[in-house]
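Tutorial sheet, problem 5. The two components below are modelled jointly, 222 residues in total.
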Amino acid sequence: DAKTTQPTSMDCAEGRAANLPCNHSTISGNEYVYWYRQIHSQGPQYIIHGLKNNETNEMASLIITEDRKSSTLILPHATLRDTAVYYCIVRARLNDYKLSFGAGTTVTVRA
Amino acid sequence: DAGVIQSPRHEVTEMGQEVTLRCKPISGHNSLFWYRQTMMRGLELLIYFNNNVPIDDSGMPEDRFSAKMPNASFSTLKIQPSEPRDSAVYFCASRGDVGYTFGSGTRLTVV
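Model answer (structure tokens):
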């Protein structure tokens, strides 16, 4: 799997958009970008994934650059409950079962 | 959908004792994973089952660890004998069409 680089931590104001960057400059053509988050004392939770097009669901939006070397997860209106560690993971979707978690970004949403 | 169910939530045991962790995956999910999380090493994949068959157990730390999946709705992770360095949060996850669903984890403390 391609290596990902994320900031160690970031703060966000409640109600504002949180933009979480991820660099994956060695990503290959068949690899997807996945985002998971882990709220304290809970298991990781799937957020969103994408290949090359921007994606949106009820939780977040994923913006992938045209060269696919980086992406941004956007939480449109952050709440205190969004405080968590966010993991950006790159992996091939088919035949690749390993989900390798790095250190992630610790996001703290402040009132 | 009750999600992935793990038991117990917390386990405190003495060194040398046998510990059994249990997992019920989401019905219809064919893949099941056991992860371990510690502060030092983060989230590590221990073992992966597909259709109840162990596919990759390369992450199992040593022979003291064993995992079984006797049917599609139940899996166990056993540690015998347990050691203090086994203290961690153990997560079970099952995989559906899109992402992984993790259980709430079992916090194991070996004293």
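Marking note: The longest strand of chain B covers residues 42-50. Full credit if you identified this.
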